[in-house]
Amino acid sequence: MFKAVLQYRGFVLGSVQREFQSKYRNSMFGAAWAIINPLAMIVVYTVIFSQVMQSRLPGADTPFAYSIYLCGGVLSWGLFAEITGRAQTVFLEHAGLIKKVSFPRICLPIIVVANALLNFSIIFGLFTVFLVASGNFPGWVFAALVPLLLLLTLFAIGLGIVIGVLNVFFRDVGQFFGIFLQFWFWFTPVVYPPTILPPAVRDLLIFNPLAPLIGAIQEVLLHQAWPQWQNLLPVTILALLLCAFGLRLFRRRAGEMVDEL
Fold first, then answer.
1. Can you give the three-state secondary structure of 202-227, one letter per residue?
2. For position 37, what pLDDT does the model report?
3. Which of 7, 59, 79, 82 is 20 to 30 Å from 185 at the Cα level?
């Protein structure tokens, strides 16, 4: 399967380029919208929550503490939400291409991931510049973000493929997941630290695989602390299982999907 993807790497790269260009082609601000949208979200949450949350952040002793915490959470969540959101409809959106052109169908989720990482790299690159300019760059511990973001991407695309395949056969799956994603966002400590939650609610975070993962990213950025890798073992296993199950489900149902599209 992956050997076939390598043979079609030109198709993947060309699709990523075309999608990125078409997304902003007739826009006055062009690719700047990739920055404006998450930036607007960050500004809104900063204005609403900064006065309350700044004092609630453990060990926060810099003027930009909450902004850094918020950016780490919002940008990471944005990457996860974009991959899963696009993956759940990618087979439906490309139904005509799937029916008419012979190519490895697994290229479509790969294109989704590549586009999401491209958009993420733009805004996160600017955020990194902000960290350097404000004197809050975490130093060598910043390198820990590479495996953390890789794990986040792996978890997102594994879940996305499963939902994407199911959504072809049961269209309610996509509708339900869109609603579920909103609840999931607020159940994940993205805009608030977990310490403000009541102990009974905080204990429930053990069932949220994104909580330790996004929390580790925020710890790297805010406290310049290396992740507690053992705490990420459950989400790592879950991500691998989702990817394995998603690929198996995709391979077994690929033929039936063409008839359903």
1. HHHHHHCCHHHHHHHHHHHHHHCCCC
2. 74
3. 59
DSSP of the chain:
-HHHHHHTHHHHHHHHHHHHHHHHTT-SSGGGHHHHHHHHHHHHHHHHHHHHHGGGSTT--STTHHHHHHHHHHHHHHHHHHHHHHHTTHHHHTHHHHHH--S-TTHHHHHHHHHHHHHHHHHHHHHHHHHHHTT---GGGGGGHHHHHHHHHHHHHHHHHHHHHHHHH-THHHHHHHHHHHHHHHTSSSSS-GGGS-HHHHHGGGG-THHHHHHHHHHHHHH-----GGGGHHHHHHHHHHHHHHHHHHHHHHHHHHHH-
pLDDT at 8: 65
Q: Give pLDDT, residue 7.
A: 67
**pLDDT value, residue 107:** 83
CB contact set of 231 (below 8 Å; sequence gap of 6+) = 212, 216
Task: Copy the structure tokens of residue 177.
Answer: 């997941």
Q: What is the pTM of this model?
A: 0.88
Judged on CB neighbours under 10 Å (0-12, 13-18, 19+), 174 is middle
pLDDT value of residue 51: 64
Q: Which residues of the chain have pLDDT under 70?
A: 1-9, 21, 23-34, 50-63, 101, 103, 261
Q: CA Rg, the chain, in Å?
A: 19
Find all residues with CB under 8 Å of 139, minimum gap 6, and list them. 224
Q: What is the pLDDT of residue 218?
A: 94
Write down the residue that tokens 């959106």 correspond to: 93
CA distance 125 to 129: 6
